[in-house]
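Researcher: Re-running this chain for the archive, since the previous output was lost when a drive failed. Same request as before.
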Amino acid sequence: MTEERRVEAVNGWLALVLNLALLLGGLAFVIATLVHAAGAFHAQEIVSGASVVHRVLAGIATEILAFVMLFGYFTLQPNEARVLILFGSYRGTVRTSGFHWANPFYARSRGAAPGKAVAAPETRKRPRTSEGLTGAQSLSTKLSLRAHNFNSDVLKVNDKRGNPVEIAAVVVWRVQDTAQAAFDVEDYGSYVEVQSEAAIRSIASRYAYDHGEEHELTLRGGADEIALALKEELEARLAKAGVEVEEARLTHLAYAPEIAPVMLRRQQAEAIVAARQIIVHNAVGMVHMALNELDEKDVVKLDDERKAAMVSNLLVVLCGNNEASPVINTGTLYT
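Model: Regenerated structure tokens:
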């Protein structure tokens, strides 16, 4: 794995002053040499031709040097870096924002990534082929260190129980190590997208959508735990690309359309059963309380048969879907 080496570039403003001095000084030196040689010729003074030629060549060399230096300037915005590559050799990374100057022979591109175009976080040149498709992409030596969002497409995956589900997630990431991002993977932007989708599929296949066993973590019931597991999975996959994952969270989770109606009916049935269990549990508690109150306050003495009838009537009233219609007994308690 490539390790990042941080270096500092020359201040661009100081280099610009030196550059202009060389540019103007070289031109002035050539002109002064030619003027002096012309004056000496008209005054019939002896001047060494070789000396004049050497001075003119020195001035021209100074001009060429000043011209070449003009190609060494670059700027970096906050949270932006540039990897320095000299004839294929990695020389370091500049992270300081501002106006800089470096060796003009440092590469402006770190190669080309073949394949289709993707939403990349860096400046790219995307030439069009004759068929209208995007060809090879020229990858810039400047890398963005800002936080990026990757919102995955809705993927259809089988969960732990084999049920097809639709799932999508958003991943917040940034480049941590510029050397790894630039040299250890072909295209770190595309790499993040592919590995993120692979991690989402892996996580979805490990857990059931819902209704797992007792205390079992599910995709629907453990949002925070699933987000943490997805982040750890992504960190393991993206570490070789020098990418840091700041957050990963599911944004879409549903059963696939072909089984959604069946699962909806099952969920409705389970909800009804759960509600009935709560109603019956509370109704039994209320009946028990009523019988205890009658016994403690000695309101009426009931034998087991009448207690059973009372319990039956109270449960019908408390557990019924509709309001009960009371029937008044005009006779005695036992007729």
